[in-house]
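TL;DR need structure tokens for one chain.
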Amino acid sequence: MPISIQNRQRKERVDRKLALQWGRRILSLQGCKEGELGLVFVTDRQIRTYNRIYRNKDKPTDVLAFPMLEGVGGDLHPTFLGDVMISLETAARDARVAGRPFEEQVKILLIHGILHLMGYDHERSAAEAGRMRRREKVLLRVLNAPNTLS
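>> reply
TL;DR here they are.
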């Protein structure tokens, strides 16, 4: 499961090896044995630009997903799921507010982004939001269990 990681920010330290392990484990748990994805860590300023361009929302957000299997050309590279972009500034801020470790917040955002790449969409309907939330909880529970990252 190839995962490309780009760190385009310098404000927050990120454990690339751990993010890679999480990404691979999430894909595996989703039954995606050959999936590829890109993971991009950015600042609030950078993610705000993408959020404005692609979602018409002129504000920073925590995570954006860019699925490649949807729309025109989605069948050109059927194993490339797309890119997940995470603002580590927002992740750090949200982790402090929630009283959880920064790494835990990044893991939550990675799960959320990958599920979006795989077709989950909490904005589609209340039922879909519930389905996505339930799956996020299951994946987080499994990832947090002892020996799940080996």
